[in-house]
Write a structure and sequence with these properties.
Shape: elongated
Strand content: 15-25%
Order of helices and strands: EEEHEHHHHEHEHEHEHHEHEHHEEH
Strand order of the largest sheet: 5-4-3-10-9-8-7-6
Distance between the termini: 57 Å
Number of strands: 12
């Protein structure tokens, strides 16, 4: 199945992956930093950047704020209270327009994950090409319905979900007439243990639902998302930062520019190398046969009119004469000229 993800990009399983640099809240509420990250993601070759569209009022309930009034364990990752951090890091409505315009000017797609209906509407007004559903909302069926009704492609992260929950989410979106669905295999741990990543789930999702499948990765480095390309992922989403030492929630587990650049470059190479299930010898290999394959060669002089015996023949390079798989068909036949030792035999030499 093929989906028009953006005006410029159609995706299907085993295509060249569409790479999303997930900035999320790594902008730390600083638009200068956000734009610097956009430019860096573009320079790395990413197709899109993705932010998160939430506010302190739409993401977290009062009692959760009251449980997290002060952080002291990791000052680089946390400061003050949870409410103070959310107030600092959330993306204001007007900043969405500012960042979308900046992305358009610099030739990279702008996208974001909405967390409430009015944030879906905001992103539609801003002009995102698709909506990304965070793993936490796969069972938020009311939000899924609202997103589905936009008619835009839906990237559905599957972290923390059972197969039944994924099926329910897919059917909820389909019930609104939207079949532009991309499932993203995801493990919602930052970072996950390698034994919990289960890349084979990519193949399972492809076979179970028939939709294109991507990978939302939270592992360290770039080896795992690159490996996912060999399983046919059409989208790779990876957290991105310009500096892992910046304060904030996700910088430490994000890919930095060298890692993102390597991810983009290597994923393209692997996708191109996957080819097809049809066995076909390339033109370059056909040409190489002439040099590297062997031909039937005289193991000793053979006089004109002699009957060929097994002792008369061997096989050596180049592959310009009778191929060695025809050797046994030459026994008992007559040569039409004097053959010198090490001569390459051709069919015109045989009666």
């Amino acid at each position: 199945m093929e989906i028009q993800l953006t005006p410029r990009k159609r995706i299907s399983n085993f295509c060249e992956p569409y790479v999303i640099a997930e900035i999320g809240s790594n902008h730390n509420g600083d638009m200068i930093l956000a734009k610097e990250m956009i430019l860096s993601a573009k320079a790395c070759g990413a197709d899109a950047v993705k932010f998160q569209s939430w506010s302190p009022a739409t993401l977290i309930a009062r009692e959760e704020y009251e449980r997290n009034t002060k952080y002291t364990d990791n000052p680089k990752k946390h400061f003050g209270s949870l409410r103070e951090m959310c107030e600092r890091y959330y993306l204001r409505p007007e900043q969405h327009y500012e960042l979308k315009e900046f992305c358009d000017e610099n030739g990279i797609d702008f996208s974001s994950s909405p967390f409430a209906d009015h944030e879906v509407d905001l992103l539609d007004e801003v002009g995102v090409p698709f909506h990304k559903v965070a793993s936490m909302d796969i069972n938020n069926l009311l939000l899924l319905r609202h997103i589905a009704r936009t008619g835009k492609p839906v990237l559905l992260s599957t972290g923390m979900s059972t197969l039944t929950e994924i099926e329910t989410a897919v059917k909820t979106i389909e019930a609104e007439g939207n079949h532009n669905i991309v499932l993203l295999h995801c493990i919602a741990i930052y970072p996950p243990k390698y034994e919990d990543i289960n890349l084979h789930n990519i193949t399972m999702l492809q076979q179970t639902f028939g939709y294109p499948v991507g990978f939302s990765d939270h592992s360290m480095g770039f080896a795992i998302p690159i490996a996912s390309v060999a399983l046919g992922v059409c989208v790779i989403e990876k957290h991105f930062t310009i500096d892992k030492d910046l304060p904030g929630w996700d910088h430490m587990i994000s890919a930095d520019p060298p890692e993102m650049k390597m991810l983009v470059e290597q994923s393209k190479i692997i996708a191109k190398s996957m080819g097809s299930f049809q066995r076909k010898v390339s033109e370059d290999e056909e040409a190489k046969k002439l040099k590297f394959r062997r031909s039937v060669v005289a193991a000793r002089p053979i006089a004109k009119g002699s009957i060929i015996t097994p002792e008369d023949l061997t096989a050596k390079r180049p592959g310009l004469g009778i191929p060695p798989n025809e050797t046994e068909n030459l026994y008992g036949r007559t040569v039409t000229r004097d053959i010198l030792e090490d001569d390459v035999l051709r069919w015109e030499d045989i009666k």
